[in-house]
Amino acid sequence: MLNTTTVTTDLMIRPQSAAPLAYAVSQLGGVSCLASGEVVADTYVSVEVLPDASAQWTDYIAKNPDVVSGLDAVYGDASNVACFNIGGSFSCSVNILVGQNWIDVYAQGLNVEPSASNEAVVERVDPLILDIVNTVKNTPAPGPAWVAPTSTGMLPADCSVYASADEFRAAFGSTGEILISGDSDGDGWGIDNAGWAMTGGDRCVWAPESTGQTWPFVVTALPGGEWAFDTSARLMAAGGGVSAVAQGSTDIDRATFGCHVYSEFCTLDTVIAGNWVQFSAEKEILGTEHDVQTLLISIAERAVGRFSS
Q1: What DSSP designation does 146 have?
Q2: What gap in Å lies between CA 59 and CA 264, rounded to an integer?
Q3: What does residue 77 show for φ and ψ, rounded to 5 degrees?
Q4: Phi, psi (5° rounding) for residue 14?
Q5: What's CA 77's distance to the chain center, in Å?
Q6: How far apart are CA 229 and CA 269, in angstroms?
Q7: C-beta separation of 228 from 20 below 8 A
Q8: Cα-based distances in Å from 288 to 17, 255, 266, 269
Q9: What phi and psi, each to the nearest 5 degrees, are found at residue 160?
Q10: DSSP state at residue 2
Q11: Strands 178-182 and 68-69
């Protein structure tokens, strides 16, 4: 299936998955898995399954007119299949509703003849997709949904609790109007967005109005996500991606810091009252990694004192 000689399977732990958003599906009792090639770069199949997602699927249909439902669906009760051969690079994106379960499959680096048509690519992945759909169909109904411990604290409803416009200007050397918003990460709507909405996750962005879509500072938070922080921190630390950091607030239970080549951002990940709160800033704007770490710690320590006010 994949254009590679060695395949590894694991939880979906790519660098971009070291974020609260990536764990929302799992927190809801779903599945996030990845089969990747160790020899050929960009060769992998990812599978996510989100239970009880029929309401979120309705939002997906509204944004994706290519969804086919009912008897005409290629797979399940409704599906959207898009496979391409672009210059000999093969990929497939498949979204399926089976009962109330939303399945998302993405395949990159498929082992297909270079001249294959888009339809031939679809035929190549068909056995895999059918197997995944049947597995989901035949899986027993899940038990009760996970509930965060009662000790979990509330997250701020207002993004300015993390940083006001004046505080952003002072920290990032900006002038003029600052836009602060809870952003939905664009107009697209996929399974990760659905999981994020279902968990009540927060995403706040700060940007000078003059820069348009440039967001030098972002805060994301997964309610009750302490377990996910610990999982991510263990995996990232093992690969040298993050390290534990000391900070002065007793309201921050623990924290890690790391800078990521793939995004040019540095992140301070924290556990605050049982929640995973991630503070991210663009390194180029602020200077050294130490400069970014110092700033993000100061923002987190100031913000946590406002959480209950």
Answers
A1: P
A2: 32
A3: -85, -20
A4: -90, 165
A5: 26
A6: 8
A7: yes
A8: 24, 19, 10, 18
A9: -70, -10
A10: B
A11: unpaired
122's CB contacts (< 8 A; 6+ apart) are: 81, 83, 92
- In sequence order, which ranges of 52-183 are alpha helices (DSSP H)? 54-63, 118-137, 165-172
What's the CATH number for 159-304?
A: 3.40.1000
pTM of the model: 0.84
Structure tokens at 74: 């290629």
Share of the chain above pLDDT 70, in %: 87
Residue 196: other Cβ atoms inside 10 A: 25
Residues 6+ apart with CB under 8 A from 21: 192, 196, 201, 203, 220, 222
Q: Is 153 in contact with 274 (CB distance < 8 Å)? A: yes
CA 186, chain centre distance (Å)? 13
Q: How far apart are CA 24 and CA 197, in angstroms?
A: 9
CB contact set of 297 (below 8 Å; sequence gap of 6+): 245, 247, 248, 255, 268
**Residue at token pair 């967005």:** 193
Tokens of 5: 């000689």
Residue 149 CA, distance from chain mean position: 23
- For the chain, give every domain's residue range: 7-137, 159-304
pLDDT tens for 14-42 read 444 578 988 899 899 998 888 876 655 57
286: Cβ contacts below 8 Å, ≥ 6 apart: 172, 292, 295
